[in-house]
Description:
Elements: H1 2-30, H2 35-39, H3 44-53, H4 57-60, H5 62-90, H6 96-125, H7 129-144, H8 177-181
Amino acid sequence: ALKIAVVDIYHSRLKERQRRKKKFQRVVTCGILPPAVLERRYPKEVQELYETMRRFARILGPVEHDKFIESHALEFELRREIKRLQEYRAAGITNFCSARTYDHLKKSRDEERLKRTMLSEVLQYIQDSSACQQWLSRQADIDSGLTPTVPVPSTTGRRSAPPLNLTGLPGTEKLNEKEKEV
């Protein structure tokens, strides 16, 4: 009796799933919910909300649900714009002409900062010729659009240690050349 009850529950869930699927297909084909609404792209944060709120679309109805999601997308855009305007105000900018100049200068500063970090990265590897060759090949791969094939050395600010001088240490005569290199 227990097994039959479990199978009945399983069948009822399958029937409910089929019913919801047919209802959604009817809504799309009848034109209640236009296909453009289904294909609309939202920012990542709104897309996450859309995914979590999709199960409530049946309760709200397709039009109300779409309005709900659109209002949240608008809210997200307004918050982003407010944050940008607050950044301008903190920098002392009072008009949009100055804002365009500020954005242009900020972009060039970011590019310069990126170049400086690349230069410091090069200077870090300049003393070790093998590390320098690895860095150059990695940069060439990045410039050509490939993923780097050489393992990326750590950029924690530490330099690679120079090789140890093992001459005169006890037990080194038992090591072969590869072990001494390691």
